[in-house]
């Protein structure tokens, strides 16, 4: 059963509380039996019902226990088709780019402060020798 393949449109047909599928890391889970037990509330699960909820799931930082429960809900894997939304590989693509950007911006800022400091020091030394 867990070998079954679902397309995005298959998954999107299961978006009600009694029949709730979601995609996490390209695997398809049937969360219907867990909705009432979810410590984070049923609302959030219903929100992502029938969709890719990888980001929402990972953003919360779910425990290993949560991941074990998740494995028990597995019904199949996602069959990606052309035109489907891109894989939401968490911690890669967009997130990494953002981190790299801010990191290099940080380095740039330090470089400017450092160069500014050196210039100020040289100017100070220069003025001293002038006197
Ligand atoms: C079927 C998929 C999911 C399972 C099996 C699951 C399971 C769990 C479990 C076991 C916890 C307790 C804390 C922990 O062990 O990490 C939890 C907490 C939580 N979950 Fe989920 N979760 C799922 C999907 C989601 C999604 C899609 C969201 C969307 C935002 C979400 C939001 C939360 C929040 C906000 C908490 C924290 C509740 C609190 O500490 O007050 N969960 N979840």
Write a compact overview of the structure shown.
It contains five helices and five strands, in the order E-H-E-E-E-H-H-H-E-H. By secondary structure, the chain is an alpha+beta fold. A five-stranded mixed β-sheet has the order 1-5-4-3-2.
Describe the model.
The protein is elongated and about 85 Å long. It has 131 residues and is of the alpha+beta class. The chain folds into 2 domains: 4-78, Roll (Flavocytochrome B2, Chain A, domain 1); 91-131. The protein has a 5-stranded mixed sheet with strand order 1-5-4-3-2. Strand 3 and strand 4 form a beta hairpin. It has helices at 8-12, 42-48, 54-60, 64-72, 93-130, and strands at 4-6, 15-16, 19-24, 27-30, 74-78. The termini are far apart. The protein has 5 helices and 5 strands; from the N terminus they run βαβββαααβα. The chain is 50% helix and 15% strand.
């Amino acid at each position: 059963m867990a070998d079954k393949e679902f397309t995005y449109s298959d998954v999107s047909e299961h978006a009600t509380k009694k029949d709730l599928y979601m995609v996490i890391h390209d695997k398809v889970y049937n969360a219907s039996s867990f909705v009432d037990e979810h410590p984070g509330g049923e609302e959030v699960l219903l929100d992502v019902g029938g969709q890719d909820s990888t980001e929402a799931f990972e953003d919360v930082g779910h425990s290993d226990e949560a991941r074990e429960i998740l494995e028990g809900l597995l019904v199949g894997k996602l069959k990606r088709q052309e035109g489907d939304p891109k894989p939401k590989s968490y911690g890669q693509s967009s997130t990494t780019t953002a981190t790299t950007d801010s990191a290099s911006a940080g380095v740039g800022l330090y470089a400017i402060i450092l160069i500014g400091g050196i210039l100020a020091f040289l100017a100070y030394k220069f003025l001293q020798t002038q006197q």
